[in-house]
């Protein structure tokens, strides 16, 4: 604030104006380059196959068409993968939040016996891991492969989020909790009736970060899930766009009738839209979240 | 369940070397009292502790298959020991040096081309006087961070393909020929770094902007009175203010030197660019999960984790030497 005010008094020399002008132009270009690919893909996905086939740089469809989306909705595969992703994201995030809160709360109590060794053990997992192969054997040994649980359980708690949430819980004044205890609340009751409601903004932020990572994950599904019926949308997207296997419909493309390019773009739009929908909420909180994270555990 | 709680509680509190039996008894009963008093606390800890044991510590125990000839049907206990055989094989493999080179080059490219960009961008944003414009730019450049790697790579595929990709269309119109960016191994590293830049540079500015917001405004006023122009102020006030942040982030980046972004590279690998694109992590995946060489790939993974651990601890030690609070 005070910085802005102080600038008002700056003599508006030519040099200063040029500096500001150049700065704003370059930043505008950077911002545009960042979002242009998204706009291009969105525009082409709504373009008629004929226009898209001609190519060229489309930022606004001249001949508006929903054929790509109609095609997508007519196939089972994509709709099913969207449902899988929605299911994994909601249930997975609920599990994440429940387990992270349950574990963070006792760890926030400095007097609890055994707290320190558990914290050290958690920190150590951030430094060293058994690696891909042994983890794979644990997950398959528990019979989780080829079930959607394999996408939710093996990453149920993020050590980093746990530590940050623990720090957040520590800042809550003890007095509030004590008064609830005097009124006969158990520790579990205190967590759910006092601590969690008081930490809602932080928990909402963690929830959104967890949800974004669930929605975006593809690698767990690639290693743990063979059954293509259970693929989340990111895996399907990889098949369609990157491996270019024209297998979106149950039968495969009829390349003459449909422009595969517009369909690929429509799938990308589907895989991205949920992120863009929560983005305004995320943006409100993440700066704070990142700062919380930089505070030492 | 009860037993589990009890072991968690008692194993963790280190017994002191008290010689008096009587005192020990009273201490034990004191633990017991606290255990009962905090039983709900321990009950809440239980699911999380189980999670970390099963999904983090059991795999750490599982890395001993790197020293065995592991057969899935015989299990960890039934498989025969192989000593350091798999490590010896890995180090003598000509591919070891290829993986080493690929990983190293990507890491160096990252530090040279990616690392300075968030700093420059943050400095530029910091100079913007119109608050609304600044916020608009920030909103735009943070978006790609939240998009999946699959989408990022997918977008690049669509734009760069030789069959109707917009970049190649333009290139063809200008020069009359196309470049197979996605197949040409010589383009692999350039594209990987460009994708990282597009996705993460905006997000990377946050930490520098936070450091910049703490700079004392009076310094700028004093400098202006002394006749310093905007560039001079930038050089003598703004940049020194974030110098320690830059140093610490550079050190921490060195700590994760070997992590070249597994998911990202995994998605970008094709049969034509494996020679330049294969890194330790993707090699573990190929050998272990597609070719079922479990023990060998676990050995490669363990080698990488171990080097990674040393690098992180070393970086943390260095950060402390620089007078910063370490991360661990």
Automatic annotation (TrEMBL), chain A:
<dbReference type="GO" id="GO:0005886">
    <property type="term" value="C:plasma membrane"/>
</dbReference>
<keyword id="KW-1133">Transmembrane helix</keyword>
<keyword id="KW-0472">Membrane</keyword>
<feature type="transmembrane region" description="Helical">
    <location>
        <begin position="24"/>
        <end position="43"/>
    </location>
</feature>
<keyword id="KW-1003">Cell membrane</keyword>
<dbReference type="InterPro" id="IPR035906">
    <property type="entry name" value="MetI-like_sf"/>
</dbReference>
<comment type="similarity">
    <text>Belongs to the binding-protein-dependent transport system permease family.</text>
</comment>
<feature type="transmembrane region" description="Helical">
    <location>
        <begin position="151"/>
        <end position="169"/>
    </location>
</feature>
<feature type="transmembrane region" description="Helical">
    <location>
        <begin position="263"/>
        <end position="282"/>
    </location>
</feature>
<keyword id="KW-0812">Transmembrane</keyword>
<feature type="transmembrane region" description="Helical">
    <location>
        <begin position="190"/>
        <end position="212"/>
    </location>
</feature>
<keyword id="KW-0813">Transport</keyword>
<dbReference type="GO" id="GO:0055085">
    <property type="term" value="P:transmembrane transport"/>
</dbReference>
<feature type="transmembrane region" description="Helical">
    <location>
        <begin position="84"/>
        <end position="105"/>
    </location>
</feature>
<dbReference type="InterPro" id="IPR000515">
    <property type="entry name" value="MetI-like"/>
</dbReference>
<dbReference type="Pfam" id="PF00528">
    <property type="entry name" value="BPD_transp_1"/>
</dbReference>
<protein>
    <submittedName>
        <fullName>Putative aldouronate transport system permease protein</fullName>
    </submittedName>
</protein>
<feature type="domain" description="ABC transmembrane type-1">
    <location>
        <begin position="82"/>
        <end position="282"/>
    </location>
</feature>
<feature type="transmembrane region" description="Helical">
    <location>
        <begin position="117"/>
        <end position="139"/>
    </location>
</feature>
TrEMBL record, chain B:
<dbReference type="InterPro" id="IPR035906">
    <property type="entry name" value="MetI-like_sf"/>
</dbReference>
<feature type="transmembrane region" description="Helical">
    <location>
        <begin position="201"/>
        <end position="222"/>
    </location>
</feature>
<feature type="transmembrane region" description="Helical">
    <location>
        <begin position="104"/>
        <end position="125"/>
    </location>
</feature>
<dbReference type="GO" id="GO:0005886">
    <property type="term" value="C:plasma membrane"/>
</dbReference>
<protein>
    <submittedName>
        <fullName>Putative aldouronate transport system permease protein</fullName>
    </submittedName>
</protein>
<feature type="transmembrane region" description="Helical">
    <location>
        <begin position="294"/>
        <end position="315"/>
    </location>
</feature>
<dbReference type="GO" id="GO:0055085">
    <property type="term" value="P:transmembrane transport"/>
</dbReference>
<keyword id="KW-1133">Transmembrane helix</keyword>
<feature type="region of interest" description="Disordered">
    <location>
        <begin position="1"/>
        <end position="22"/>
    </location>
</feature>
<keyword id="KW-0812">Transmembrane</keyword>
<comment type="similarity">
    <text>Belongs to the binding-protein-dependent transport system permease family.</text>
</comment>
<dbReference type="Pfam" id="PF00528">
    <property type="entry name" value="BPD_transp_1"/>
</dbReference>
<feature type="domain" description="ABC transmembrane type-1">
    <location>
        <begin position="100"/>
        <end position="315"/>
    </location>
</feature>
<keyword id="KW-0813">Transport</keyword>
<dbReference type="InterPro" id="IPR000515">
    <property type="entry name" value="MetI-like"/>
</dbReference>
<feature type="transmembrane region" description="Helical">
    <location>
        <begin position="137"/>
        <end position="160"/>
    </location>
</feature>
<feature type="transmembrane region" description="Helical">
    <location>
        <begin position="42"/>
        <end position="67"/>
    </location>
</feature>
<feature type="transmembrane region" description="Helical">
    <location>
        <begin position="234"/>
        <end position="252"/>
    </location>
</feature>
<keyword id="KW-0472">Membrane</keyword>
């Amino acid at each position: 604030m005070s910085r802005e005010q102080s600038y008002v008094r700056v003599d508006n020399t030519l040099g200063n104006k040029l500096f500001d002008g150049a700065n704003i132009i370059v930043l505008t270009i950077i911002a545009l380059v960042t979002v242009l690919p998204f706009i291009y893909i969105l525009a082409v996905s709504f373009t008629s196959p004929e226009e898209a086939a001609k190519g060229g740089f489309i930022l606004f469809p001249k001949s508006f068409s929903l054929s790509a989306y109609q095609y997508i909705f007519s196939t089972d595969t994509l709709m099913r993968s969207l449902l899988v992703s929605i299911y994994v994201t909601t249930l997975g995030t609920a599990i994440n939040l429940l387990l992270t809160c349950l574990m963070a709360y006792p760890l926030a109590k400095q007097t609890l016996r055994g707290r320190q060794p558990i914290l050290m053990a958690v920190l150590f997992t951030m430094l060293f891991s058994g690696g891909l192969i042994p983890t794979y054997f644990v997950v398959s040994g528990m019979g989780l492969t080829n079930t959607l649980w394999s996408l939710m359980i093996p990453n149920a708690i993020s050590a980093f989020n746990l530590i940050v949430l623990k720090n957040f819980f520590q800042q809550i004044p003890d007095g509030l909790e004590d008064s609830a205890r005097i009124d006969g609340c158990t520790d579990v009751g205190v967590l759910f009736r006092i601590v969690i409601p008081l930490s809602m903004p932080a928990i909402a932020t963690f929830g959104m970060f967890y949800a974004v990572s669930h929605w975006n994950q593809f690698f767990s599904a690639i290693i743990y899930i063979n059954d293509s019926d259970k693929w989340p949308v990111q895996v399907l997207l990889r098949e369609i766009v990157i491996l270019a296997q024209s297998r979106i419909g149950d039968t495969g493309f009829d390349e003459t009738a449909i422009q595969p390019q517009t369909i690929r773009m429509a799938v990308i739009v589907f895989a991205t839209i949920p992120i863009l929908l929560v983005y305004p909420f995320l943006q409100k909180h993440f700066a704070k979240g990142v700062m919380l994270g930089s505070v030492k555990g | 369940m009860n037993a589990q709680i009890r072991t968690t509680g008692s194993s963790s509190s280190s017994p002191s070397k008290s010689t008096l039996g009587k005192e020990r008894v009273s201490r034990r009963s004191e633990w017991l009292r606290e255990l009962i008093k905090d039983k709900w606390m321990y009950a809440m800890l239980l699911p999380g502790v189980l999670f970390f044991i099963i999904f983090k510590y059991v795999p750490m125990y599982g890395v001993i298959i790197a020293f065995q000839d592991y057969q899935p049907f015989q299990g960890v206990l039934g498989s025969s020991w192989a000593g350091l055989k798999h490590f010896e094989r890995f180090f003598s493999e000509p591919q070891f040096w290829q993986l080493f080179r690929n990983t190293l080059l990507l890491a160096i490219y990252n530090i040279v081309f990616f690392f300075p960009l968030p700093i420059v961008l943050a400095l530029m944003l910091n100079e913007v006087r119109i608050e609304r414009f600044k916020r608009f730019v920030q909103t735009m450049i943070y978006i790609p961070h939240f998009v999946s790697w699959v989408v990022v790579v997918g977008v690049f595929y669509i734009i760069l393909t030789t069959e109707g990709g917009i970049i190649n269309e333009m290139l063809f119109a200008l020069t009359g020929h196309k470049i197979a960016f996605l197949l040409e191994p010589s383009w692999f590293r350039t594209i990987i770094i460009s994708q990282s830049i597009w996705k993460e540079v905006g997000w990377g500015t946050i930490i520098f902007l936070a450091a910049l917001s703490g700079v004392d405004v009076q310094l700028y006023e004093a400098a202006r009175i002394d006749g310093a122009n905007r560039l001079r102020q930038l050089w003598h006030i703004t940049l020194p203010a974030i110098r320690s942040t830059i140093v610490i982030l550079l050190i921490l980046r060195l700590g994760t030197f070997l992590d070249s972004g597994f998911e990202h590279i995994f998605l970008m690998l094709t049969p034509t660019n494996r020679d330049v694109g294969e890194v330790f992590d993707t090699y573990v995946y190929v050998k272990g999960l597609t070719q079922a060489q479990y023990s060998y790939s676990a050995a490669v993974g363990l080698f990488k984790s171990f080097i990674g651990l040393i690098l992180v601890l070393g970086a943390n030690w260095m950060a402390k030497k620089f007078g910063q609070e370490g991360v661990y």
